[in-house]
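Sample entry (281 residues):
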Amino acid sequence: MANIALVTDSTADLTAEMKKKFEVHVIPLKVNFGKQAYFDGELASEDFYQKLSSVRELPQSSQPSPGDFIALYEKLLNQYEEIISIHLSTALSGTVNAARLAAETLQNKIHVVDSKNISAGIALMVVEAARLIQEDIAIPTILEKLQLVRANIETLFTLNTLEYLQKGGRIGRVSSLLGSLLNIKPVVRVDTDGIYTPVGKARSQNAALDQIIRQIQHLASGRKIKSIAVAHGAAVEAANRLKTKLENVFETKVSYFTHVSSVIGVHTGPGTVGVAVLFEN
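Predicted structure, serialized as tokens:
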């Protein structure tokens, strides 16, 4: 097998099982409640949302520094010849830029990939990268194939409220819905530029889940589904409903079921439910 390390960040929302199975090294982002900083995942999901609901000011998220990446990369290069590092969309975070600055110091041994995605969408790309590494494929070919993978992943989610996206400055094109959404659930797509784009709205969470299903059917454009991942933020019942709907409609088992990281939760709030679908090339 190729001697290549695989790195991602905590917003990929990989389960412990996935990290172990695919040998993924995860660099965490941070959530800052005032002067108190927590690494992503340091707070249990329940504790995080309880804390989020009790504070007056929205906590801030922060990316790893170039120095954090250098420390991880240098450690891994003691064991591996090269590294593929896949991260959160540059439209949503400076994480990729920090990774690239670190990579510039390490003699072209680090290959940084902008997923142009978030959460389960990154996870599906990371899993495909791991499989390609296991197949002993050369890095230039892996990077080329990952561009195709990125183009074949669709990520959609619904929110209970736009409050957190707006306050956190990550609202993107969803800002067009502000002022019109009193008790209405937006349906959002991560577009090809890695930006949140509104694609629908519904008067209930269940109706929003149905819209997500219809959007996937539309976006499939005749392509066959390869894998599906579902993620949620303090909305396990709704996520399970979405999982059941997906499996019934597309006759494909959901491969991964996870909860979103605290960093994503800061910007989406409780009640978030989403899906990422990887289509065959």
